[in-house]
Design goal:
By secondary structure, the protein is mostly helical. It is about 95% helix and about 0% strand.
Length: about 110
């Protein structure tokens, strides 16, 4: 039982760390998108119409990739949240079972004495 609890705790810690990593990565991606937009806007104003078109197209591609990455990270975060909830539910169930078993053993011990 102790091994199961330790395994569960390690699993929960790993899931929490992965979720936090996904959230940090999403924040970094959004910051990169804002920076790219500023840099693209500055470049567009200083160059020719052809260059402006190329930069705008590049910005659209960057935004698309960032959006896809952000969406994937959010999906992953949601999955980790779901797994964490399920793990906590299992932990609560195990706790209830252990509490009931301990209570029965105490009652049996009282009866024997």
């Amino acid at each position: 039982m102790v091994t199961q609890c330790e395994t569960y705790l390690a699993s929960t810690n790993a899931e929490t760390a992965a979720r936090e990593h996904a959230e940090r990565t999403a924040d970094v991606a959004e910051t990169a998108l804002r920076t790219a937009r500023r840099e693209m806007a500055a470049a567009v104003t200083s160059n020719s119409a052809n260059w402006e078109f190329k930069l705008a197209e590049t910005l659209r591609e960057v935004e698309k990739r960032v959006r896809q990455t952000t969406d994937a990270l959010r999906d992953e975060r949601d999955l980790f949240r779901k797994r964490l909830f399920e793990s906590r539910e299992r932990e609560a169930a195990m706790s209830r079972v252990l509490t009931e078993q301990a209570q029965r053993l105490l009652e049996e011990g009282d009866t024997i004495c």
